[in-house]
Amino acid sequence: MGEVLERLVRRMERHLRRSGQLRTFEDDTEADGEGDPEGNLAASAVYGEAPPAGPQWVSRLAPLEPQALAYDKPLCASLDGFTLHAGNAGGRSRLGGA
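RE: above sequence
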């Protein structure tokens, strides 16, 4: 179960990075402040300039914080904030009790 969770987390992380929905630690330390829309807006207010035009507010997920693989309960594993629950019959009621 741990191997399955590790593989799923890495695949989800790769997908979110490629689609631009997951920030990286390098994004937080960008030079010139171009990656900091709040800082740019504050700087424009201080200098009496108009704020940048167009949609610049991009909300992305924070970088994943590495955490060790843990087995919290029987049939339950967690890794980097993700959990996998085995033996769960989720959605059974929607299938008409099948």
